[in-house]
Amino acid sequence: MHDSQSNLQSAIAMLNQKRYAEAEHQAMKVKAGDALFSRALEVAAVSIERLDRCAEALILLEYAFFIEPTNANIQYNLGVFYAKVGDENASMMAYQTCLRIKPDHVDALWNYTEQLRIKEHFDAALLLLERLESILPKHRLGDFHHRFGVTLFYLGHMDKARRAFGRSLAVGGSEPAVTQWEYSHLLLALGDWQKGWLAYDYRFAAGHRTNVVCHHYPYPLWQGENLEGKTLLVHGEQGLGDEIMFGQILFDIEKEAGQIVWGCRPSLVRLFANSHQAIDVVPHRVIVAPADVSGKEIHYHVPICSLGRWRRTESADFEVSRGLLRADSEQVVEFDRALVTSMNGVKKYRVGIMWGANPALGVRSARQRSVQKSIPIDYLRPLVQYCDQIQFVSLQNKEAAMEAASLPQLDMIDFADTAALVENMDLIISVDTSVAHLAGAMGKPVWVLLMHQADWRWMREGEKSVWYKSAKLLRQPRQGDWGSVISDLCSALDEWLRILE
Prior knowledge:
six-stranded parallel beta sheet, Rossmann fold, Serine Threonine Protein Phosphatase 5, Tetratricopeptide repeat, 3 domains
């Protein structure tokens, strides 16, 4: 027993000194059947895991669990190891077991609440965060209040969330830029534009955590200076919807600047060039293919989403400019002819419909949100009742458009997603996608079907959009409740048809 205790103490000391191979060797000197054997297996497992041999570590740790199933720390380490090999369900179960044995296990609470938050089990996460607050070491409170703020925000406790973010920034967490970025979404969703844009400016400093990248041009950053006689390079940074939404501000500043060069996604070049004839529109893809401005005298540059800070600081600013994007007139005529042909000359109202968001395959968090924003095709079945009066036209991308085959009763026409097609619609119905932004920026009537935890761009409540005067917002009353949204949509269609007739 004395030898086992000595070997174990030496192994723990070596582990703390990061001498992992020696710690493993020393820990395994403890004999099987000894009262300290399960602890020795745990020390050996942690040492092996630090040497990137996680599969072996799990075998040892599961053996230790078999010997001592009521050891909270073994359960905690199982939670850590399972997460590292990608078995999130097993990880969460291990943390649950750990907390049943030891409800105040700080690290298990910390890791488990983060897993719950990422999976959007916010109610469960909040309960554990409230338990954690009183036992967490002071040096971790900055990060705690950040997580607390995010959780409260998603649950709609806006005042409490605002205070939590404030505490995190005051105490100082490990990633203040990320805290500012998350805080900006709350502020902007509440219409606190001035403070919101200041916090939003931290998006690039937050790095990979925001999935936002800024190309660095060799020109001074524009920070609201007078643009008379100056050339401003505006360049894209996020998604299609963001470029369309913030691109509306170009209608304001094109009157102020000597010249504007607008670097946007290649798929938007013709649309913006047709709508902003005084602006030099060039293709730009962040990092991959930045705008070619060789031979142009540029005085300032600015990422497109930073325009809000300088031209949308009060609610009244959103009414200043109502410039609209314009589709190519020849394409509009071509699509009209195609629609007439496809409908066999039958006159119906044309309603474009978009039920699925971009799948965003590259980023897990974006992929999860894309699924939440999308409506499973079968939810649209109640729209079949309107097919005598309405021709539904799919505005879906090719991948999701194939889903329409599972609901043939809607008899949807499938065309490419273009501004010319949107221009031919009497009404657009869309989930939160670039199509909704496109229709709104064109001034077309658009009804946007929103998940309960909608993006800050649509604010927290109400049927109106500050960005698009022609938009009507239909919101989930609770997360995942598309049935209520479709019911509201049918009521709105009944009223719309009654007015038209």
